[in-house]
Specification:
Blueprint lengths: L9 E2 L3 E2 H13 L13 H4 L5 E9 L17 H13 L2 E5 H7 L14 E5 L10 H4 L5 E6 L11 E5 L9 H7 L5 E6 L1 H9 L5 E7 L24 E8 L2 E11 L3
Parallel strand pairs: 3-8, 3-9, 4-5, 4-8, 5-6, 6-7
Antiparallel strand pairs: 1-2, 9-11, 10-11
Length: 261
């Protein structure tokens, strides 16, 4: 793959473009990257043995993803955004809840690093997606909307609709979503926080990348929102690796391997 002149010489502050190309080559071969350190954060996506889900969150050091008024641009540094685009480039599908589309109108494409854009998947059980949402019209990547059986959607002809039965709470069950996306092997759960949290709670996430910025917000919504625990012995203690990306720190959490309590 040719690297365009507009692409920066370094990616995420720790990896030059030749090293990123080596990651892409490993991904194409279906093998883990040879290098140690930061690039190993991508290994589960380069050589998955089965359908693999990776979640990502960006937050302040006090766990906030926005201010109390909803301002969230930008909590994390530019290198953190580069990392997110690396994840997109290595996945077959990028999943967000419709709330993220309503709030941010994202493109969900790969623009900051060399690589191909994944299919974009929007979880929209009630047909809330705005008709003028960018990703419905740019045709920059295949786009899929997941919704309930009886919801009426008026979408462009190139947008695929997949219908799922609703759960008891009116949402779409995460396991049903996984089944509906069985044609994709590497899946990035990009947001928002509620969607990522639901996939953690049901045990579907294999890895979680949390990008922590040296920022104290003090109040506002938190990134991970799970049911309360009575005892710390019941808490998740995943295996973790840590990498500095610019001013931020990446926590690469293996949710399938727990540290001893």
């Amino acid at each position: 793959m040719n690297i365009e002149p507009s692409v920066p010489k370094t990616i995420a502050g720790l990896m030059n473009c030749a090293e990123w190309q080596a990651v892409l080559d490993a991904w194409k071969r279906g093998t883990a990257p040879d290098a140690e350190g930061y690039v190993q954060a991508f290994s589960p996506l380069c050589a998955p043995e089965r359908q693999t889900f990776v979640g990502q969150l960006g937050q302040s050091i006090d766990g906030r993803i926005a201010t109390a008024t909803g301002d969230s641009f930008y909590i994390n540094c530019q290198e953190a955004l580069d990392h997110l685009h690396c994840l997109r480039a290595l996945c077959d599908a990028v999943v967000v809840g419709v709330g993220t589309v309503v709030a941010d109108n994202p493109q969900l494409t790969v623009r900051r690093v060399p690589g191909e854009s994944a299919s974009r998947v929007i979880i929209d059980p009630n047909g809330r997606i705005p008709k003028d949402a960018c990703l419905l019209h740019d045709e920059a990547a295949p786009t899929i909307v997941l919704t309930r059986d009886r919801v009426t959607l008026d979408l462009p002809a190139h947008v695929e609709v997949r219908r799922l039965p609703e759960a008891d709470d009116g949402r779409l069950c995460c396991h049903a979503i996984a089944e509906a996306l069985s044609d994709f092997k590497r899946i990035l759960i990009e947001g928002g926080a509620c969607t990522v949290s639901r996939f953690i709670d049901c045990g579907l996430l294999d890895r979680l990348h949390v990008m922590v910025a040296p920022l104290i917000i003090g109040a506002g919504p938190t990134g991970i929102q799970l049911p309360p625990l009575d005892k710390l012995s019941e808490a998740h203690r995943p295996m973790a690796a840590m990498h500095q990306l610019g001013t931020d720190w990446l926590l690469d959490l293996d949710l399938k391997q727990e540290l001893p309590h």
